[in-house]
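In this section we turn from sequence analysis to structure. A common task in structural bioinformatics is to predict how a protein folds when a small molecule is present, because the ligand can shape the pocket around it. The inputs are simple: the amino acid sequence and a SMILES string for the ligand, here flavin-adenine dinucleotide. Study the lines below before reading on.
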Amino acid sequence: MNKDVIILGAGASGLIAAIEAARRKRSVLVIEHMKRIGNKIRVSGGGRCNFTNLHVSAENYCSSNSHFCKSALAQFTPADFMALLDRHHIRYHERSDGQLFCVRTSEDILSVLQREAVSQGVVFLLGTKVNKMRKKEFFEIMSDRGPFVSESLIVATGGLSYPDLGATNLGYSIAREFGLKVTRLRPGLVPLTFDKNTADQFRDLSGTSLNVEISCRGIRVTGGMLITHTGLSGPAVLQASLYWEEGDRISVNLLPDTDVSGFLTDNCRSRAQLANLLASVLPKRFALRWTEMNNISRPLCQFSTGEIERIAEDLQNWKITPAGTAGFSKAEVTLGGVDTRELSSKTMESIKVPGLYFTGEVLDVTGQLGGYNLQWAWSSGFAAGQHA
Ligand SMILES: Cc1cc2nc3c(=O)[nH]c(=O)nc-3n(C[C@H](O)[C@H](O)[C@H](O)COP(=O)(O)OP(=O)(O)OC[C@H]3O[C@@H](n4cnc5c(N)ncnc54)[C@H](O)[C@@H]3O)c2cc1C
C-alpha cells in the first residue's frame, strides 16, 4: 500500500499529526501495534486526562536543547486544543495552576481525535507489528501485515515508560538506524525509592502524605509528598525526579510554610513532648517516627536553644539519598530521547534524512507534571502534520 504519510504510533502526537496531515489532503496511514489507540491518553490524569496547562512555556520542559520546543508550542497552543474540544462540545475545567482536565473522562478526548481522524480519511492499522524499514527513494516499512511505502514517515512511538500500555524502543532504534543521536534515556516523573534500612523505618507510614518543598540540584519544587512502602511519591517527588541523578541527595523541607524556628522557640518552655507539638503541624505518626529516628523524644523544655535551632534546621532540611527510582514501569515519562539538534524545530523533520519526522515523547523534550507532556505531544504532532 502506498501512502503520502505513514505514522508509527497512534498516541497523542501521532493522532494529531495524522489529522493535520490528512487535512492537507495527504493520504495517511497510522500503524499501531496495540489493539487500541491512545492507551496513555486513556489513563492520563487518573482517567480524566490533564490534557494541557494554560501557563505552558519552554521553562516547563527539560531538554538538552532548551529552545527547541518554542516554535512548536507557539504553532499549536493550549487554546488551539481547547478550541478543538469546544467544537466537539467536550467539557473540561481547570483544577489548579492552569491544569485542564476533562469533566467526564479521557475517552472524550480519544473519541474527538478518532472522529477527526476518520472524517479526514486517516486509515488505521491496529495490532500491527513493524519489523524492518529502509529508505531508498521512499520509506519502505515491512510489517506483519505486509509492506508499506510512503513519501514521509512520522515516528510517534512515545517513550519507554509503562510498557504495559504499549511502550517500545522502536522510535529510538529507527533514529539510530538513520544515523541520528539519542540522548541518555531514564525514567522521569517517577517515584524515588529508599534504601532498605530507610524503607524498613518508614514502611508502616505508607500512605502518609505531607506538603513539602524539595530541593534537588538547585531546583525547588513544592507540593504533596507521599510515603510509600518502597520510598517517596506524590507530585513534589515526581517533579523532583526530573532533576534527580543517581547518587544525588535531595533536601526536603517538611514545613515549608512555617517559621519553624519561631514556632519551636515560642513553645520552648512547654512540658509537652516535641512529637506532640510537631503533630499539630505534621501528620501525627510521622511526627512520632521523626522524633524517634532523631532521638529527640523529649519534652520541649528539656532542649537547649542550640538543640532547638538544630531541630528546626533538620525539619527544614531532611537530607535523603534515594537508592533509585521505581523505573520505567512506574514512570509517567522518559527523560532524554532523539537529539533535537538533529531536527528542524519548526517542522520536526530530520535535517539528515528528508521526509523523516519525530514527534512527542520520543524526542529529548520532557515536560513537568501538570499537562505539559500532552501539550508537547499535540504541538509537535501538529508541527509535523503541517509539513509531512
Ligand atoms: C500513567 C500516566 C499518566 C499520565 N498522565 C499525564 C497527564 O495527565 N498529562 C500529561 O500531559 N501527560 C501525562 N502522561 C504523559 C503522556 O501520556 C505522554 O507524554 C504522551 O502520551 C506522549 O505522547 P506520544 O504520542 O509521544 O506517545 P504515546 O502517547 O505513548 O503514543 C505512542 C504510541 O506508539 C505506539 N507504539 C510504541 N511502539 C510501537 C511499535 N513498535 N509499533 C507500533 N506502535 C508503537 C504505542 O502503543 C502508543 O500508542 C502520563 C503518562 C502516564 C504513563
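The first helix runs from residue 12 to 23. As an exercise, try to locate the residues that line the flavin-adenine dinucleotide site and compare them with your own expectations.
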